[in-house]
Amino acid sequence: MTVRIVIADDQDVVRAGFGALLDTQPDLTVVGSAADGAAAVGICRETRPDVVLMDVRMPVLDGIEATRRIVAGAAGARSGRGPRIVMLTTFDLDEYVYDALAAGASGFLLKDMAAERLFEAVRVVAAGEALLAPTVTRRLIGEFVRLRPHTAEPTPLALLTPRETEVLRLIAEGLSNAEIAARLTVSAETVKTHVSRVLAKLGARDRAQAVMLAYEFGLVVPRSGGPRI
Q1: Under 8 Å between Cβ of 122 and 129
Q2: Largest CA distance in the chain
Q3: Could you say which of 37, 71, 136, 190 would form a disulfide bridge with 104 (CB–CB 3.0 to 4.6 Å)?
Q4: What pTM, to 2 d.p., does this model score?
Q5: Residues 6+ away with beta carbon under 8 Å from 170
Q6: To which H or E segment does residue 197 belong?
């Protein structure tokens, strides 16, 4: 199945470069591009892509608000499904990327990534299998959750069974369904069921948001050098 992609970036060279690279792959195709967030929202509405590569900082409408509108539009659509949004940034500890993840983005990539990494990331996020650049993403989430106050109110974590809580911890480590299955000695189908229930109980759109909630609710505690699980 071909993955349909929209590229949103205010730099012509970035859009052209990514587009040329992606179109070299038989299973990837660029169906649109936009120089600002408002145009990205419109193009996504018209083309219904599978993945959007979204710059964080753009004129007219920034990537965070564009992400929020695309996600909201997908939630209101009859299918209930929208594109997976991947934020593009020039440095990994970008506070705006955290806000974009909170708005519904599925992950982020650095603009200076290698071509093979770009191809792999688009395929992975289109499949909804795992976070992009999990080590760096965990560090980003951990850094900014550390700075935000924790709520004392009851959290949805109480709704999870012990096994679902264990699965959420492993998701936060960046493990794929196959890796979680191997760790727990269960089938991949069983893991898929657990993941679906975790997302539903947490009200999370995808695995990226589930990881953010694991940090925010204190299930995973950030520390220098990686998470304490």
Answers
A1: no
A2: 50
A3: 71
A4: 0.75
A5: 179, 180, 183, 184
A6: helix 188-202
